[in-house]
Amino acid sequence: MAYIAAASDTWGISGPTFLGYFAVAAVVAAIIAGIARRIIFAGPSDSTRLTLAPQQVAYLNGRENLAVYASLTGLRAAGVLTSGPGGTLQITGPMPAGLTPLDVAIYNAAGRGARVRDLNRDQWVRPALDQLKESVERTGYATTSSQRSIARLWALLPAAVVAVGVVRLLDGSRNDKPVGFLVPLLFFGAILALSALLYSNRSATYATAKALRKLRVDNQHLAPRMSPSYATYGASTAAMGVGLFGAASLYAMDPAFAAEAQIQRNLGTASGGSSDSSGGYSSSCNSTGGSSCSSSSSSCSSGSSCGGGGGGCGG
Amino acid sequence: MTDYGVGIGWRPEIAGFVAGLPGLRFAEVVAESIHDHDDLPPGLAELRARGVAIVPHGVRLSLGGAEPVEPDRVRHLARAAERLAAPLVSEHIAFVRAGGVEAGHLLPIPRSREAVDAIVANVERTQAELSVPIALEPIAAVFDWPDNELDEGDFLTEILDRTGALLLLDVANVYANALNRGDDPAALFDRIPLERIAYVHVAGGAEHDGIYHDTHTDTVPPAVYDLVADLCARHRPPALMLERDGHYPPADDLRAELDAIAKSSGYPAVT
Question: Domains of chain B: which residue ranges?
């Protein structure tokens, strides 16, 4: 038997009918907002053709701070940077060739003894970061603030549905109507609306996110758990490791520098997924050039070929 | 054994470098870095799929210990060999624990008849679990035990003869031992069965206070390449590999060392 709108129904719509409409409207609104995001944030059509430079990867993965860390990693791997007291930087060699504008700005800031946490505000680093941001936005790698605003407008659609539900809840309660089913449904709608808003805040376009996922798979050897040797891979690859797997990579490659320079360890790892720094396959001997094996947690005891008649790592 | 040519010790720190060697056909991985219930470390499966032979190199069996090898460790080595479809495995003629105490280092065993009996028994226990041959590697020693009954050549030959095992010869520690004792490094080549060599380690070292340390964290000295050439002139082993365990240099330096091994041995370059 069909429900017939009784005069006493709130807004002239029966409770079960409203619940049905509400649920459908909330889901449809969330889907529309999702489709809008897909279109707004699509990015370059062929994600396999994207060529992302290490600092661009870092920016897309962890915004400005990770871009700065990627640059620090490159300069450190090039052997021209060290840490001074109180999280400051010092240069230890002439400026290498092939630097990016951000590298040059950070190299010069380090020459003035800048602190890592102040780099973003440095008068030369700031424009270099703006230039990096502009480059990834122009190419469609990163979302722009206007794209994010438009996506947020679309996210208001599910929010509006929830608002209607809230008004109904208030009116219904005032009329002493049962609202027990509407409350959980409102909660569900609110989650949809909130996620639509959160997803509107993404920094990488969908094409870029796909390209980043592929890069992470292709560059597993740079993950922190592999303790990659950045001396072997070189400056640019080391910077790529930090860009892809976050600041934990710098800690894995160069723990003393990372700690002294007060690098935030967790930056850029949350979206990395597989970039855990636990466990690890490291089996290396002391990497500071000494002749004895290191006694750190991941060295000899975890099954390396260290050891050898007191002669150090000979095996 | 087929000729594999020049290889390299796969280590996680340089996995990307190893993956990028176009001519590579032979690599070695520290057996204990492969975990039974975990995926193979990233990159190893890809090397395997490319047809690169990968040999698990044990460092913790303690074959030279007075007590029997631990069955779990032997099973782990056998399992690693199966997962890698390895043509052989290798371990050291050394002990790493005694009476339940872990040394954390490979320690030399005295070259006595009693020690030969103990190590032969342990090698046989290990061979019983393995479906592939095992190669045994003598270690570098900066000192000799005072009660040695056998010289190095006789000691090795007897162990190999009694077990039927292959030999993993570390040219760098042959060099280190000879230098530290003031002997001729090549003299050992006359005393051991060269045709039993499964493969050769080539590694770097450094001299401190008049003692040469086989560190595996320094560049390979030219004299070690000369020794490689000398060995290959007598009997060229199926594979020779660069063994670097830390303080990894730039990729170009590693390539130069691999090329130098190729040049001294006459095998094609893998870089």
Answer: 5-265
